[in-house]
Amino acid sequence: VTVAATAPARPRHTARWIAISVGVVVVLFVGLLATRKSADTLHADSPLLGKQAPATSGVNFSGPSDQTVSLSSFSGKYVLVNFFASWCVPCQQEQPELKAFSDRHTIAGDASVLGVVYDDKADAVRQFLNDHGGGWPVIDSSSSKVDWGVRGVPESFLVDPQGYVLYHIVGGVKDSDLETLLQQAKQAQNRQ
Amino acid sequence: VTIKRWAPWVVLAIVLVGALAIGSQHKGKETLDAHVRRIAAQIKCPTCQGESAADSNAASSQAIRDEIRTRLQQGQSDSEIRGFLVSRFGRDILLKPPASGVSGLVWALPVVAFVAAVAGLVVCFRRWRRMQEAW
Predict the structure, then answer these.
(1) Cβ contacts (< 8 Å) between A47 and chain B: which residues?
(2) Which residue of A45, A145, B29, B105 lies most exposed, with the fewest beta carbons within 10 A?
């Protein structure tokens, strides 16, 4: 009893443990934020990445009036599926970039662009294509915006020759960035 | 006297349990529109802030409602339709996070925090009582 009464009380260090716990949480939080993909990263997440592209087809705006175009008809080529609308300013800005990309790869025969209209009127789309150029198939497919999980325009997806979704791009595209992604995709395919 | 005192509470309990039992079992015939709206109310509008696909007039929400309607007409269940939308937009399209996987933390953490807080208070009160007794 005498020993117990005279033994020094063990220090509790409560403040130290609280400080360590808070420190660990802060470090984890900062680590999480630091390792997240930057918002301005060219390609964005999508549940479709690595999966078979959704079946997509519709009447072609830029061809004969009753001509139906489907994504599967591009099999064997890389396809940039581009969701756009005539009322969308970034879509207007990216159109020359898409045209440069499309023109170069139409000649090479290795990649195509497929435009998909997002919430727009047929006349406005035709006027947009007249004003801003194009030359690739453009379709209106009401179910596509859900099938592809599109949240706004412009959004684009690069699909490989086997029909798998490789990249998801949110916002306007640049010809040089598209070229980089295409070359990355080709190199990855060559390594397989 | 005891029976008189408890009788209203017993009656109240019986009425409450009966009402809950009837309310939980009664399923009126739900129209297709109501069913579409019920599922759409659990889905975020992809292009707007703080609105469900049921309440929004955005084209994307209309497309989601059309998709839900088509899939209900095909005989798909609510969870199959929610699963399809998650497979296209990602988990954050759901207004209510799922109670499994990492998202389950959203539900579990408040409970864990509450239990930890109560346990902390119990420990503190005991310690204070011991200190008072020692004085």
Answers:
(1) 86-90
(2) B29
For residue range B5-27, list pLDDT tens digits in order. Answer: 888 888 999 999 998 888 776 56
ipTM: 0.76
Spatial CB neighbours of A54, under 8 Å, sequence gap ≥ 6: A48, A144, A147, A148, B88
Whole-prediction pTM value? 0.72
Under 8 Å CB pairs connecting chains A and B tally to 43
pLDDT, tens digit, for every residue of A20-36? Answer: 888 888 888 888 777 66
Chain B interface includes A121 (CB < 8 A): no
DSSP B111-128: HHHHHHHHHHHHHHHHHH
Among A21, A51, A145, A148, most B C-beta atoms within 10 A, so best to mutate, is A145
